[in-house]
Task: structure prediction
Amino acid sequence: MHVVRLSLTDYRNYARAELTLGPGTTVLVGRNGQGKTNLVESIGYLATLGSHRVSSDQALIRAGAEAAIVRALLAHAERELLVELQLNRTGANRAQLNRAPVKTRELPRYAHCVLFAPEDLAIVRGEPSVRRRLLDELLVQRTPRLAGVMSDYDRVLRQRNTLLKSARARGLAAEKLTTLDIWDERLVQLGSEIIDRRVALIDELAGPLASAYSSIVDADHAPALRPMLSIDGADPDADAVDAASGDEATGAGEGADGAAPGGSAGASTTAIRFAEALRVLRPKELERGVTLVGPHRDDVLLMLNGLPAKGYASHGESWSFALALRLASAELLRRDSSTGDPVLILDDVFAELDRARRERLASAIGGYEQVLVTAAVLEDVPERLVARVVRINAGQVLDESADDGDADA
Result:
């Protein structure tokens, strides 16, 4: 799959923008703050329904405008598809497919993209929520139906937390809160599917991750992933402030039968383990007014040379691990997608790499149908990738050329 044409209206710093693209590699060149990343961010949004830089859609709408519009003409083989998304300042976002209205959560079914950016260093060094998002975005691109499952889980989680807060305020004992059982059942049903899908995905990523890391670093540092499940006693958010409640969360491991993080607690199913963890922790949840176990509190432990990458890996190793995870994600999408390769986007990546790693990365991505690269300085990009250059300045696509002239033009 590749993007044939991208059109933006009132998106970020673009009043209007038109960009014609094609297969192969395109380098978007311009000084920092000119709008290069905004262009590729809009493509990434169609595939993941989110920005890699901000959590709110409001920041994507140009100042003074009520809505932003992203249109992309996608091509696979002989078929073309027009995907449109309207981000509204008030009210729900709207989407169209070939001019016919569709649910916004349907878009990842048609737009496949993997974007790597400097912010992805947080995959290794940041909070568990960053790693959860990495897995969930890939899951939704591979199985769009899961967007609905995740949305339903979030809704049930909010309602359950509201009930817990109300019970805490009224001083209700656990045995008197029978209505909580109804929400528990739904939470377990939805959450178990998310947990199982994530664990299966982590297993699938193992091989592609090792290959991608080796191709970038040219060394065997044994990169590995290990699920850390709150239903089995792990609680990566134990010392964090829970976003839903504003209260400090407690460790879910207290009373979770001592199961090892990511363990299977014997032959029990995920749903049984989840339900049991909720039962054991209900008194503590009532004390805190927040749900202490579930996929919203899980994590993935990233390992290098048998040690946690977070805290032990160098800056270069952390950068390479994050990049390898994105390349492994792209490989999985390429492997099972009926629309061909995902669009591969490298946003200001090459400036962070030494010359040897730049060349190895260029070799690793050379076979993808469409690669979009942003750079402040064209000389940072390996020559083999400079097939087509588009220059960006102050929210304007100035000109397009096949030469590698002054990057600050």
